[in-house]
C-alpha cells in the first residue's frame, strides 16, 4: 500500500496487485471477482523491469515483476483494513 495506491483506490476505484509473470488479464479478472466478490470493469498490466543495484564491487539487478491495475465497477469496493 503506497500513497499513490491509496489515492487511486479512493478516487479512481482502482487497485494495484503484484501478479504472476505468466498471468493474463482474464486470469486476474477471474481471481479478483472470486476472492472479493466484486465486479471488475477493466484490467491493465505492466511488466516492471528490475533496477540496477551495486553490492560492493559487483553490479547486479533486482528482479523484474508484473503489476496489474484493476478498476472496479462504480458500486463495488475492496476493503483491506
Task: Supply the key terms.
81 residues; alpha+beta; 3-stranded antiparallel sheet; two-stranded antiparallel sheet; 2 helices; 5 strands; 27% helix; 38% strand; elongated
Q: What does it look like?
A:
The protein has 81 residues and is α+β, with helices and mostly antiparallel strands. The protein has helices at 3-12, 25-36; strands at residues 14-19, 40-48, 52-55, 58-61, 65-72. The strands form 2 sheets. The protein has a 3-stranded antiparallel sheet with strand order 1-5-2. Strands 3-4 form a two-stranded antiparallel sheet. The longest helix has 12 residues, at 25-36. It is elongated. The N and C termini lie close together (11 Å). The model has no long low-confidence stretch (mean pLDDT 92).
Amino acid at each position: 500500500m503506497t500513497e499513490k495506491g491509496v489515492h487511486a483506490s479512493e478516487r479512481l476505484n482502482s487497485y494495484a496487485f503484484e501478479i504472476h509473470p505468466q498471468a493474463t488479464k482474464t486470469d486476474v479478472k477471474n481471481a479478483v471477482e472470486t476472492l472479493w466478490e466484486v465486479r471488475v470493469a477493466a484490467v491493465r498490466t505492466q511488466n516492471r523491469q528490475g533496477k540496477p543495484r551495486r553490492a560492493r564491487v559487483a553490479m547486479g539487478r533486482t528482479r523484474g515483476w508484473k503489476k496489474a491495475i484493476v478498476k472496479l465497477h462504480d458500486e463495488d469496493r475492496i476493503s483491506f483494513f
